Amino acid sequence: RESLIQWNNAYDTFLRRHVPSGTPSGNDQNAWKEYISSKGCDRPTQSFLDPGDLERVKAVCSDRGGQQLKENLCISRERFSFVTVRSEPKTCGIRTIMRESKHLILACEALENHCLPVHFEGNSWGQ
């Protein structure tokens, strides 16, 4: 039971960090600085997926939308568009805003008979 709560928290954290509502739609640095500041800029690199893609994102953790890469990491069968923002820790100053289109690499864990994403892994292969 304890681990279920832990992983539910990990899934909730994944959603809060990577699939939040209200992200700026463009590349306006002021809008992103305001958004990042309101959420906390303790992580210098943050990637944001479109909330409308949530079901596709969850499918990466299944044969339907992904395949195992190694251990609990799965890679999506198709590319996803997302925004990666690099900011200054503490000041939240925006360094870069990049729109990317890559295969997602997600850490997945089984929760209540469903395998769900709990971590967004950087895709340095650029695939």
TrEMBL record:
<feature type="domain" description="Ribonuclease A-domain">
    <location>
        <begin position="7"/>
        <end position="124"/>
    </location>
</feature>
<dbReference type="InterPro" id="IPR036816">
    <property type="entry name" value="RNaseA-like_dom_sf"/>
</dbReference>
<protein>
    <submittedName>
        <fullName>Si:dkey-237j11.3</fullName>
    </submittedName>
</protein>
<dbReference type="InterPro" id="IPR023412">
    <property type="entry name" value="RNaseA_domain"/>
</dbReference>
